């Protein structure tokens, strides 16, 4: 009898969250941005909201450095705050800190991260996986589309450029091997998947909040 190949945990997360990914991928805000239909202010607003999220993600990540579940996936090469700050300086100006504020969906996202930080490394793992593997996957497509639509080179696009990860594919393969090796029992594995689906929802809600202001951002014909 042929051996039945059992999918690893990384493959299971990918399959079990595929529907949530597809529902998140096609937002009006991101589609119009990538088609060049929105102003630079719209891109700046997306980067500003991302700054609040990664500020919490990376601050909480540091507290998990010695955790057996989360510790192995942490990598300085992933950290996005320096890139986000350089983009905000370029897109908004030196006084960007005084000119950005979180949308309600961003506040809810950060609140969820804080909640998870206090209680569950496996849920935090879902947050980490979703953002960074997403940035190294669809994020790279977004980078090329923004380049084409707005003529950015590196400035304004640094969030999508991982200087320490010249080739995303081997990095992502290694990340998935770490997910496979994470010391999680069945209930904890399910908790990762449940949280990942919830986090896709938080990202969808953010795109909806951004779309609420879309008229303000439309490029006038
Ligand atoms: C324009 C929007 C998007 C496009 C075109 C896109 C496209 C893709 C593609 C092609 C992959 C597969 C890459 C591979 O197999 O190596 C992927 C993976 C992924 N994307 Fe997206 N994506 C988008 C938006 C998002 C968003 C908004 C998120 C989360 C907030 C996200 C999270 C992920 C994750 C976590 C993976 C890795 C799945 C896995 O292999 O486990 N994506 N995306």
From TrEMBL:
Name of the protein: Heme oxygenase
The gene coding this protein: pbsA1
Signal peptide boundaries: none
PANTHER family recorded: HEME OXYGENASE
Lineage: Bacteria, Bacillati, Actinomycetota, Actinomycetes, Mycobacteriales
Superkingdom in the source lineage: Bacteria
This protein's record includes keyword Metal-binding: yes
Documented EC number(s): 1.14.14.18
Keyword entries, A-Z: Heme, Iron, Metal-binding, Oxidoreductase
Amino-acid positions noted as binding heme b in the UniProt annotation, renumbered to this chain: 14, 21, 129, 176
InterPro entries in the cross-refs: Haem_Oase, Haem_Oase-like, Haem_Oase-like_multi-hlx
Gene Ontology MF annotations: heme binding; heme oxygenase (decyclizing) activity; metal ion binding
BP term (GO), one: heme catabolic process
